[in-house]
Amino acid sequence: MKLVTYRASVEAAARLGVIDDGFVVDAGRLGLPDSMLGLIEAGPAATEALRAALPAAPWQAKLPLANVTLLAPIPRPKKNIFGIGLNYVEHVAESAKSLDTSKDLPKQPVIFSKPPTTVIAPGEPIRHNGKLTQQLDWEVELACIIGTRATRVARADALSHVFGYSVMIDVSARDNRRAGQWIVSKGMDSFAPFGPCIVTADEIPDPQTLDLWLTVNGVEKQRSNTRHMLFKVDELIADISAGITLEPGDIIATGTPEGVGAGRTPQEWMKPGDTIVATVEGIGTLRHPVIDAIHL
């Protein structure tokens, strides 16, 4: 299923829906949780009940997809997003040339975090604050959403804890890294465009086969496949859960491939007026304008 959080009008509350043949089917009207976190926290049985209810959904539960506004699938995550740095071989090499990172491949996942306030909905603007950064960069990533509690899970069991997958742009202010710490660089408001949906894990049995790409103003900057991850999704879940319990609704942004602005010659940066478009195969596309945030 392709699950979305949507709003039927400007004044309406956010609700959970399923994209089905050009319509959004409202989960709450089928007697199921009416929010994404509510569905995830209700467990796999609730997800299966929603799937089973779709064929008989009444017309009153359906809205044309074109008539609704899509929000981030989880508009306000309960916890910081787990970010993974340097998780594609070529990105390690390009980062070593221009950033303060090692040319050697990481022996363990490089983990950072992005606060919940970084999340923005599909189409919302990425904010460029020229007083804080002149090096605003792009990173297309596969996002993994945890479905069931994971504590010290084995790699072989890790994917059974996944609820689904989405698209995230890990916006990064390269000139805001502080003594090797990335949270200011990665954690400013609007630095995690997220969506447009969550595709349930049953529809992506192998998350290591997906093409992903990103364009800036129509020019392709990144293109790769998730098979090139150094640490696969199951390895990331096993590694994080070895010491940090993963809970339903937690999000892991699994890293970006080569082609970021910092790795180019000359370097390229996002600026107000740009349009950033990021796609992950089988999930969907995010499209975001970059705006001047100084005068907001």
TrEMBL record:
Residues 81-290 form the Fumarylacetoacetase-like C-terminal domain. One of its GO terms (molecular function) is catalytic activity. This is 2-keto-4-pentenoate hydratase/2-oxohepta-3-ene-1,7-dioic acid hydratase in catechol pathway. Belongs to the FAH family. Keywords: Metal-binding. PANTHER family: FUMARYLACETOACETATE HYDROLASE DOMAIN-CONTAINING PROTEIN 2A (PTHR42796:SF4), FUMARYLACETOACETATE HYDROLASE DOMAIN-CONTAINING PROTEIN 2A-RELATED (PTHR42796). It comes from Gemmobacter caeni. It comes from the Bacteria.
